[in-house]
Specification:
- The chain is α/β, with parallel strands linked by helices and about 260 residues long.
- Helix content is about 35%, strand content about 15%.
- The protein is built from eight helices and seven strands, in the order αβαβαβαββααβαβα.
- It has helices spanning about 10-15, 50-65, 80-95, 110-120, 165-180, 180-200, 220-225, 245-255; strands at about 35-40, 70-75, 100-105, 130-135, 155, 210-215, 235-240.
- It has a seven-stranded parallel beta sheet with strand order 3-4-2-5-6-1-7, sandwiched between helices.
- α2 (about 50-65) crosses α3 and α5 (about 165-180) packs across α6.
- It is globular and about 55 Å long.
Length: about 260
């Protein structure tokens, strides 16, 4: 079976594991140098910062990332509303329809629509770019297998922080009373799990090469970085005026 069981302490606690139980972290069979990881230090997706300026900055990042090499990309946003704002900013200010095609995940897609969406990625492109705008934690951020150049980059917008609800608050209260770590268990850990699942769409075989870009300054914090998989240790922290050159250098290094 396949599953993202990180952070492991989170799953041990939820599944009834104790301190005496041990876990095994197996080394990835994939060469970590074949995936470039980048974190934007100048993007915020916090609710208080969600405005046209941030949507445009995110769209500018997407333009720079996709402009570094033609191919298939996915952009994962924290909600449908956020997705529509970023899609609108990119389509309105940056899209060049002559060399880039964009598609967006609908809020109520049937099975045929899902299949058609994924089928667009079956074409391994050399001279044109396809960008699929999706919801983080949704149907396209896990359980899909795009290999052999069908997906060369994932842009993950936000930390995957779940919406505040009664169930989450009960979970938070429980872990606050047990180990004083309720926020992590109710919100941060589940969010990071979604982020890792989306990032995992890029490298599916030993021959795949790609990039993962995390757009949220919270990923620069130790609280989040200590939850990163080992394969992300070589990540680079960048700003909007640096990202295109850094990614272009990555592709050049790998002969792409």
């Amino acid at each position: 079976f396949s599953a993202t069981m990180l952070p492991i302490q989170y799953y041990k606690a939820l599944l009834g594991g104790g301190e005496e139980d041990y876990e095994v972290y197996a080394q990835s069979v994939f060469d970590p140098s074949k995936c470039g990881y980048y974190i934007a230090r100048d993007v915020s997706t916090r609710y208080r910062d969600r405005n046209e300026r941030q949507y445009d900055r995110i769209a500018s990042y997407i333009d720079s990332i996709a402009g570094s090499k033609p191919g298939n990309y996915m952009v994962f946003c924290p909600s449908h509303a956020f997705l529509e704002n970023v899609f609108g900013a990119y389509s309105g200010h940056y899209l060049d329809a002559a060399d880039t095609e964009v598609i967006m995940q609908g809020s109520h897609m049937g099975e045929k629509e899902r299949e058609d969406f994924l089928a667009r990625f079956s074409d391994v492109r050399q001279d044109k770019t396809l960008i699929g705008f999706c919801v983080l934690g949704g149907i396209f951020s896990e359980g899909i297998d795009l290999r052999g150049g069908q997906l060369i980059g994932a842009v993950i917008v936000g930390t995957g922080y779940p919406q505040i609800c009664t169930e989450r608050e009960i979970l938070k209260s429980y872990f606050d009373s047990d180990i004083s770590n309720g926020l992590d268990y109710a919100y941060i850990y589940p969010g990071m799990n979604k982020v890792q699942q989306a990032a995992g769409r890029v490298i599916r075989t030993a021959d795949d090469i790609g990039i993962v870009v995390l757009l949220d300054d919270r990923f620069t914090q130790n609280r989040y970085q200590q939850l990163f998989p080992r394969e992300w240790e070589g990540h680079e922290i960048v700003a909007i005026d640096e990202i295109e050159d850094r990614i272009a250098g990555f592709w050049e290094e790998h002969g792409q």
